[in-house]
Amino acid sequence: MKKLSIVVCLFALAISSITATGVKEVKPNEAMVPSVVRTNIGSEPDSLDPWKSAATDTEAIFHNVFEGLMLYDTNGKMIPGLAESVVIAPDGLTYTFKLRKNVLFHNGKPFDSADVVYTYNNLTGMSGEKAVSSKFSLIKNINAPDAYTFVITLVEPSAGFLSLTSIPIVPEGYTNQAEHPVGTGPYRFVEYTPGQRIVLERNEAYYDANRMPKIKRAEIYIMTDEAAIVSGLQSGQLDFASITAEDAKQLSSDYTIYNAPQNMVQIFALNNEDPIFSDVRVRQAVNYALNKQDVIDGVFGGYATKLDSNFSPVMGMYYNDTLSGYYEQNLAKAKQLLLEAGYPNGFKMTITVPSNYQAHIDTAQIFAQQLAAIGIKATIQPIEWATWLDQVYTKAQYQSTIIGLTGKLDPDSVLGRYTTTYPMNFFKFSNARYDALITKAKVETNDAARISMYKECQKILTENAAAVYVCDPNLTVAARKDLKGYVFYPVGFMDLSTLYFEE
Amino acid sequence: MGYYVRKILGFIVTLFLVSVITFLVFQILPGDPALVILGVDADPVQIEALQRTMHVDEPVVERYVSWVGSALHGNLGISFRYQKPVSGIIADCFSVTALLALFTLVLTILIGLPIGIWLAKHDKAKYIVPFSLVSQLGVSIPSFCMGILLISIFTVKLRWFPSLGFTPWSQNPLACIKGLFLPSFSLSLGTSAVLIRYLRVSIISEQKLDYVRTARSKGLDENTVLQRHVLRNSLIPVITIFGMLVADVLGGSIIIENVFSLPGIGKLIATSIATRDLPLIQGLVMYLACIVVVCNASVDLLYSLIDPRIRLL
Amino acid sequence: MRQHDILVECSQLVKEYKGTRNKPVRAVHDLSFSIRQGETFGLVGESGCGKSTLGQLMVRLLEPTSGTVRYTNFQDGRGNRKQEKAMRKENQIIFQDPYSSINPRKRIGWLVEEPLIIHGIGKDAQERKAMVCSILKEVGLDDSYLDRWPRELSGGQRQRVAIAIALILNPSFVVCDEVVSALDVSVQAQVLNLLQELQEKFGLTYLFISHNLQVVSYLSDRIGVMYLGGLVEMGDTEQIYHHCLHPYTKALFSASVDAFDSVKEDLLLSGDIPSPSRSPSGCPFHTRCISCMKRCIEENPSMVEVSPGHFCACHLIQGMNT
Ligand SMILES: Nc1ncnc2c1ncn2[C@@H]1O[C@H](COP(=O)(O)OP(=O)(O)O)[C@@H](O)[C@H]1O
Ligand SMILES: [Mg+2]
């Protein structure tokens, strides 16, 4: 008995000493300007190797480490990156990049045209290996006349091509990217502990004084649990983090809340080949039956932009603003359309939702209620993400689903999803005029003409009710009050170089 | 002799069956690991490239045979998700979960043993009833709720403990204990409640035996009788539940590791299933089977330590 | 050897156990008697009548609900750890079941030595070991038993160990609670003889408890007959054996004598023993007594000295005397 009580006492002592040191540790941190910024990422990076990575989350972090010939600014406009300048020949086929001098890779290797050639050889498959990406099939030819000039010749003109050149340039011959990524960006990679965190450190040799990071070190914790993220913020273990609209309300008094559209389109997809939804009138009826504002208020706490197009207004000049308000809720019209389509009493349908996205499940619930008003009985079927990818996304074995698709700088990679030949066209939308427009827009060099083609494409999608375009949910970020400089991009990019702590 | 041979044979058969079943389940389960990893923004070329490294296009039997072949050489393959050797990933995560489980068991003993003994000594309704209520709570509150509660008090309000990240023991033992304290504490409440119940009943029934009276008659005071004679004997039935507690702790760690963002086996299991990471799952299943065997062996060993009459054959 | 100094005396002893549904179980009920220095006092009664409870009360392993147990051979102080220890040293108990009465997870040597350690007897391990060996020899076990586990021993051997444990402190008073009833008949006599030898040798006083009147008569100087928590008859073995008066004692004798030609009758002891939690009014035995009278149902007879040293609690006898 005595022994036991001694053990208990020792243990209590140990705990109190631990907590005592804990208090000591926190204090200096709070007093000084921190040299570390800590945030979270919602999923494990898919691969550290930029050629093997496709996830938006991963890119959002590693865009701090890697740079392309061109970069994009906060409006999505292409700006010089590793290339100081680019000259596009009048025929639209030849791109001549002047490369920056005095750039060093994170491993100390100087950057020159050999690295660019190495990178593009692999991207296009000209190295003899399999092409790393399918997006560069337009390239006919590359060459480097000298160490700081790089020339690309295209098969045919492409207005969207320049936006592709933001793809990372990697050092020639370096094959260990998956383990230890090496780029030229303002932050260099330090470590990645699976399941735990990614650590980046300021690239002291960064060439652009304007983009030189102010914070020395960034720790990005891999956290999936919403509650854990909030308590991480509240306990001062995270400096900023993206959170849900609901949590934002709770945190708004003690944290700076950044809130902006994130160029995502939440889509209520209706399988166009489904016996019921193959009738455009049924799809239109569904569109008229729904009230998107209820979703925006009920699911996203009001922080979302209502859509009637497959683009978010963040897409800027490509966004077709005339479509706004195309489908206002109109139950009479919806019922009329159902009647014409031969469903006077409605029908039964299933909404398949990936169970890991609570927002989509909540949306489905609201929609199911609204559809009941025109006699459609919707059943919600949550399925696992992997199953969703297989059954819905790849095989299109579903009736309807709700998903968010992120926007891209190049409109083609968003609208291209609806072309008849696109392998993952899970909408099963097929429209000859649409396909033709997409093909034409790709090679159109006249910006105005190209923009109007993409606007036309959006119109076709909306008029044919290819799907229900719900909203662009905002990206909500909570940051501690003294952390400043958070900026939004039209694509997923968490720019760490602009962040600073106020003294 | 025969006993050991039988045990080992049984173990091998178990491993074999479990690996076959896992393999088959993954053939039926829909979902392409490459697609799960790369997501909806993936370039088809990338998906294809990833699929090539996974050999998912080869026939099932062939893949299974080659897996067994390399597993026999100690090579559990490369994880789809992490593109690293499975054994290394598991070893890293296991060290976290093992520490978590160890801490939890230590806490369980530190909490459960004194309270269990005390309640057995004070076998009165006025102590038992409030305890039953509290222990009912301890058992029925899911450990993750407890975890969230503890975080909101000790991490958010008081800032005594961290709620995320894990510091390896080798790097900083103090920080490691600090990081694991709350998660193991939230797990240990339920297990302590179970331990207390078993221990109390066991001590009370043991105390009814005549040898306890003999010991008193020798002139020992109550505490010494308890410590020297009763406790050891009443621990034997309790050890049986220790295997169960270990299972409880490992099960609970799956959730608690997510709540506290600990990179342990629990989190790994969740990710590996969600991403259809077959090599990793296979490795984990093998690992867990081994753990079960080790746990059983340890319970046997504990028996023989506490009860010298039991000899390990 | 026979002396008449009283060694242990209990008066108006009551022990109630907490029963189910708050009904107390009266295991011992207003019981007074004394045991003389050096004698063997036999206690008989059916199972469940409170013999073991009384035995444990006599060595203070149980606290009485009311009444007292007093020892004459040493200063007695309650709550004083030192004196309590001294009391333990003087009074020992041996239990019925040698399988449960010794800790199965300790070696014999350790078990026998433990009392010495507790009471600080013997200056070192060596001396204690010598004492352990000598007491083991007294009970008929040699040194080889020191390192044995209880499970390696037979019932008789275990009971010898239990005796050794009880006697190593050199007590004056030993309660033997059904010490042979769990043993083979062949071993019973050996153990009884051993107890008798040891009594002579160490000048022990025994409270010898058994449900078997034959065994008790064989060993005891005086006998008390117990029924439902109280004594119904008490006297010298001679008196009880040849001139028992109480119908219950008679029934007990007939039961044990006829154990061999069982056909005859259980007539004398039919009916169930009343539950100790619901003692009948009047004479506790009236529910089963063959000569039950009206008075027996209404009035509980008190102990009366029928002849010198022979006490009996029965209206029949009192009727005869008055
Ligand atoms: N610890 C106890 N708690 C409650 N009742 C008990 C306890 N021990 C004995 N009793 C009851 O007291 C009565 C006397 O028991 P006991 O002294 O063991 O009788 P005996 O030794 O004559 O068989 C029995 O009815 C028994 O059920
Ligand atoms: Mg008894």
TrEMBL record, chain A:
GO terms for molecular function: peptide transmembrane transporter activity. The keyword Flavoprotein does not apply. Residues 1-20 form the signal peptide. GO terms for biological process: peptide transport. Keywords: Signal, Transport. It comes from the Bacteria. Residues 77-423 form the Solute-binding protein family domain. One of its GO terms (cellular component) is ATP-binding cassette (ABC) transporter complex. Belongs to the bacterial solute-binding protein 5 family. This is ABC transporter substrate-binding protein. It comes from Sphaerochaeta halotolerans. The lineage of its organism: Bacteria, Pseudomonadati, Spirochaetota, Spirochaetia, Spirochaetales.
TrEMBL record, chain B:
The chain crosses the membrane at residues 9-29, 89-120, 141-160, 180-199, 235-256, 284-306. Coiled coil: none annotated. One of its GO terms (molecular function) is dipeptide transmembrane transporter activity. It is found in: Cell membrane. Its main location: membrane. It holds the Pfam family BPD_transp_1. Residues 94-303 form the ABC transmembrane type-1 domain. Keywords: Cell membrane, Membrane, Transmembrane, Transmembrane helix, Transport. Gene3D superfamilies: MetI-like. It is a multi-pass membrane protein. It comes from the Bacteria. InterPro entries: BPD_transp_1_N, MetI-like, MetI-like_sf. The keyword Cell wall biogenesis/degradation does not apply. Belongs to the binding-protein-dependent transport system permease family. PANTHER family: DIPEPTIDE TRANSPORT SYSTEM PERMEASE PROTEIN DPPB-RELATED (PTHR43163). This is ABC transporter permease.
From TrEMBL, chain C:
InterPro entries: AAA+_ATPase, ABC_transp_ATP-bind, ABC_transporter-like_ATP-bd, ABC_transporter-like_CS, Oligopep_ABC_C, P-loop_NTPase. GO terms for molecular function: ATP binding; ATP hydrolysis activity. CDD domains: ABC_NikE_OppD_transporters. It comes from the Bacteria. Residues 8-253 form the ABC transporter domain. PROSITE patterns: ABC_TRANSPORTER_1, ABC_TRANSPORTER_2. One of its GO terms (biological process) is transmembrane transport. Keywords: ATP-binding, Nucleotide-binding, Transport. The keyword ATP-binding applies. The keyword Acyltransferase does not apply. This is ABC transporter ATP-binding protein. It comes from Sphaerochaeta halotolerans.
